Amino acid sequence: MSIISNDIQKAISLLNQEEVVAIPTETVYGLAGNIYSEKAIRKIFDVKQRPLFNPLIVHVHAVDQLGALVSEFPEKARLLADAFWPGPLTLILKKKPTVPDLITGGKNSVAVRIPRHPVTLELLRQLDFPLAAPSANPFNRISPTSSSHVEAYFKDRLKLVLEGGECQAGIESTIIGFEDGEPVLYRLGSIAVEEIEEVVGPLSIRNKKEHAPEAPGMLAKHYAPQTKTLLVEDIDSFLQNTDYARIGVISFSEKIKSLAGERVQVLSPAGDLKEAASNLYSALHKLDSLGLDIIVAQRFPEEGLGKSINDRLERATSS
Length: 319
Ligand code: TXA
Ligand code: MG
What we know:
Protein name: Threonylcarbamoyl-AMP synthase
Subcellular location: Cytoplasm
EC number: 2.7.7.87
GO biological process, one term: tRNA processing
Order of helices and strands: EHEEHEHEHEHEHEEEHEEHEEHEH
Bound molecules: threonylcarbamoyladenylate, magnesium ion
Largest sheet: 9 strands, mixed
């Protein structure tokens, strides 16, 4: 029997019993539990096979809930919250002692966001506690952008995946922290760097694996298909020079003359980076299910969400 359901009341009842429930957000599906339940939070780490030092994002439905969680809210954090919440922006803020160390990996900061998904906002409104939720994929695998992706990963471990349709933004939230009140970007995501800079001015970018201690999720290999995956500048010239037989392709906007069918995933025929971002993970899931010899992805333009897409493709292809 399927564990996918529209039943918000069932999700509430499970969460109140310290269970873990998969929830939809506008970015990717999350594995959610009560931040104050040690049992629920330990189960999240266990189901995901995630190391305990890698902290979780806390999801709330309103800014006034943050009073219980954070001890500082810098001016520029406020500007970003006003501009982008509800939405795919995560802020790293100084935490209050009442936020359990299990959520924050023992750090003195906590990651918070208000997601922009009607089902999960309704769920959060009906709960007496915020939800901690990492992406609902096993550690190092591709994040899920549909309820069926989550079910395929965890049908034996979860009682419920709350249905919310396909995730519209399609890659994880952009993560911003603060140093002396100034914003620092720790993870490229669904809000483009340029959009953030319009609100708070120039950003320091610390998205690379050298910075892993600050944002412990930023390991070089992450979000990876099980099929060997390559990132190339020019797909046609790769195809002309390769010996691989069963090849899958991720292309931005162009069809590939020599290959057809579901092995070619064109992320946005119109050349729209937002649309491409929303289709990226579902295309990787699809290609990874075909038993191919190799997946070849085209490098995207290094602007707007193209930077976030390239970041995920680099992590998918890093070995
Ligand atoms: O879009 C998203 O953000 C999704 C949805 C479900 O909200 N969640 C998500 O969670 O991507 P997760 O756990 O897969 O990634 C959270 C990232 C990790 O890289 C983690 O290291 C970082 O946030 N993080 C969490 N708390 C932090 C903290 N206090 N300081 C620095 N980085 C933190
Ligand atoms: Mg993740």
